[in-house]
DNA sequence: CTGAATCCGCATTGATACTG
DNA sequence: CAGTATCAATGCGGATTCAG
């Protein structure tokens, strides 16, 4: 995680302090509190998880692996539009986090199969729910977007 | 969506065709089929949804809005590290897709409140499940990553 | 207060060529 | 077959400034 550290607020406050003021945010109204569902630390990890699953290819790879081991080249065939580079990189990421297993057979020509680990399968379940949500709301979301776009034409 | 269209396979096949060969992928073994859980069209929309929810800030904003309407400046305070640009942009995206409502009060100084729509709340529910998954597997994932990293030091 | 507009560095990604 | 290496381009995201 690339921690930028200070954002909008911090910078603004530092400016005020440079101007000789202190206790800048003393008598402001209720600070709304970050979020009811997770603390800042959890938020970081949620983002890490989303970085893992929320990128362009991870979900498609996981979905393709759901039926059992698949070879590298077959993944390339099964996932249209992916480049070798991204396929390799994403697989490595997933493997690093323990979601995917890599098995290389010492044959010639070489054969490498990728499969979901138990952890990966548990994520598949969760991701499928998100996918279901997407499918269910698809038309509704598109309608909203169209309305918004035409209104701001 | 920036459709690159053709990927690894298409390009390779086109090359073969240019060399005068045809029916390149005729007698290859079983094509593994894209994915059992969705078709190519669904995959696109799932990716759009992930683009919406999988970016750096959307989830944090949605989580912060879960307790009710929040003002623009309070969102900036509540979400550490976000810049004005990204706050505005992300809110606009969410609003465009119908996940967030924007209410501007004609006062001076101006006041604008953002809140979750029903659609947004339903996404919150789904996302919270993913968050729960993250929290549950956090240590396991970290352990995998550490092992992988040290092994490839 | 709530943004919009601009500039710009840098990370991500894709295309291509090459290797064991 | 299963990658790696390298380069180029795109675009995200941050900082800053301006505006209503």
Automatic annotation (TrEMBL), chains A, B:
Domain of life: Bacteria
Pfam family, one: HxlR
HTH hxlR-type domain mapped to chain residues: 35-142
Protein name, UniProt field: HxlR family transcriptional regulator
PROSITE patterns for this protein: HTH_HXLR
Keywords: DNA-binding, Transcription, Transcription regulation
Stored InterPro entries: HTH_HxlR (IPR002577), WH-like_DNA-bd_sf (IPR036388), WH_DNA-bd_sf (IPR036390)
Provenance organism: Streptomyces camponoticapitis
Keyword set includes Transcription: yes
């Amino acid at each position: 995680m690339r921690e930028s550290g200070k954002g909008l607020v911090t910078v603004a406050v530092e400016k005020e302090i440079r101007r000789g003021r202190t206790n800048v945010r003393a008598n402001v109204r209720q600070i709304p509190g970050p979020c009811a569902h997770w603390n800042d630390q959890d938020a970081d990890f949620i983002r890490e998880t989303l970085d893992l699953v929320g990128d362009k290819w991870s979900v498609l790879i996981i979905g393709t692996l759901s039926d059992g081991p698949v070879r590298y080249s077959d993944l390339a065939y099964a996932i249209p539009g992916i480049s070798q580079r991204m396929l390799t990189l994403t697989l490595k990421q997933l493997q690093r986090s323990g979601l995917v297993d890599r098995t290389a057979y010492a044959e010639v020509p070489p054969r490498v199969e990728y499969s979901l680990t138990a952890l990966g399968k548990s994520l598949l379940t969760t991701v499928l729910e998100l996918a279901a949500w997407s499918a269910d709301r698809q038309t509704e979301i598109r309608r909203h977007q169209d309305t918004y776009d035409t209104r701001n034409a």
